[in-house]
Prior knowledge:
Blueprint: E1 9-11, E2 14-16, E3 23-27, E4 34-39, H1 43-57, H2 68-84, H3 86-97, H4 101-119, E5 128-129, E6 136-144, E7 147-151, H5 157-170, E8 174-178, H6 188-197, E9 204-206, H7 211-219, E10 226-230, H8 233-244, E11 249-253, E12 259-262, H9 268-280, E13 292-296, H10 300-312, H11 332-347, E14 351-354, E15 371-374, H12 381-384, E16 391-397, H13 400-408, E17 412-413, E18 415-419, H14 423-432, E19 437-440, E20 455-456, E21 459-460, H15 465-471, E22 473-481
Parallel strand pairs: 7-8, 7-10, 8-9, 10-11, 12-13, 12-18, 13-16, 15-16, 18-19
Antiparallel strand pairs: 1-2, 3-4, 5-6, 6-22, 11-21, 14-15, 17-20
Helix pairs in contact: 1-7, 2-4, 2-6, 3-4, 4-5, 9-10
Amino acid sequence: MEYSGPTSLYIDGDWVAAASDETIETRDPATEAPYAEVARAGEADVDAAVRAANSAGARGGEWETTSAAERGEKLRAMADAIEARKDEIALVESHDNGKTPFEAGMEVQMVVDTFRYYAGWTDKVTGEYNPVPGGRVNYTTREPLGVTGHIVPWNYPFQLAGRSLAPALACGNTAVVKPSSQTPLSALYYGLAAEEAGLPDGVVNVVPGSGSEAGSALASHPDVAHVTFTGSTEVGKGVMADAAATVTGVTLELGGKGPNVVFPDADLDAAAKGVHYGIFMNAGQMCWAGSRLLVHEDVADDLVERIVARAESTPLGSGIDDDGRMGPVVSESHREDVLEYISLGVEEGATIACGGGVPEDKETGYFVEPTVLTDVTNDMTVAREEIFGPVLVVTEFSDRTEAIELANDSPYGLLAGVWTEGLSRAHRVADALDYGMVSVNEYPVTFPQTPFGGTKQSGHGREQGAEAVREFTQAKNVNLNIG
Ligand code: NAD
């Protein structure tokens, strides 16, 4: 399918070329062929987008004077507009990122659900009355922050932009979205949806561009009140430092090295299915990938055999194949990085149980075989660092204490999985895991209603649910002396 979607920047309700006239060429990771060319925002464009967002959200501005209920209607209309283009956006995402249309479809549906969920929040952001001494009335309200910046990675380009955009708008903020230059296309559809839903000009702006230029300009812009950054831990630290210069708030959603902890009483078929899905979905390019399998020694061989059987029968393909269940990784250089990690694992003593290279029948496309490495100890590089590809590392444990120690011995703390039929064990282990999210007998899973985020170097702050409403509002206390 040829790309026929938007190719310009979306600033202040207009579709415009970059001030520099520069463009970004994107390639389809499955065919390696050029797919689209879009405007490439630089510092001047980001500044124009922030200024537009600032005027739209200013006191007495159109967005500020839109009632909470009406804001909800606009968000619902955006959800409808996105849903109406669901298949188109999913296919674009599939060609831009390499994921299968099925995976891309789930991404778009999650965005529709998220906008509908936050549409219901707009008139429920309430304050509180404070019982202070004396003849006073004292209350606290929650106000919007102002201009919010959204810096988005390439692995879930549409969903991760929508995840923070929806609550930011619901709380009365305006937004500038900066998608990754590797996958700039789907975020532009937020411009179309905002137009179709009748949002005032400047409330939503979309500026695809490079991280070092457009991303950094957004994170350090003095008129941006809050930055939501989703991406790697290293870049996240830089964004935090940039934002610190203007004392701008940040939400950071960073990397992960999620463990799936499988106890001997688990339903092994269900565990094999969940572990397989948790590492090979999106070709393993997920912050919350279950990239470590921690399995009790009594069931390790049996479980690994079941996972390997599933991995070896996973059909590889993408937006151009109907039956693909795992796509290529995003680029040639990323494939090199993933293959290097596999070699390093073997050098450090791991055994390849399946995969380990480039599939023989895929001459084009940046495919990597679904790979399982056994005999991995927790000190090996492949157990500690985020590979961000279809590579599962397997470590055995002998009791619950060791399982918890291994799971928590990581610089990351995003999502952990527990597989057991024992109710009290499930609760006790979930309680002991130093992770922002724990899922029992299912992996991975999240909902617009539930907080998403991690501990340690996986991030700072939370997205989704009521938590995001706190992130995108600030408290204002009002005291009235009526005594
Ligand atoms: P990345 O950090 O390279 O880039 C993320 C975004 O930041 C891109 O838009 C990029 O252009 C921009 N950027 C790069 N340099 C910048 C700078 N100096 N200033 C401001 N912005 C800059 O990440 P990636 O390679 O696109 O994505 C993969 C990473 O994202 C993985 O580490 C993954 O774990 C993480 N991730 C985390 C979550 C989560 O919710 N925790 C979700 C998805 C991905």
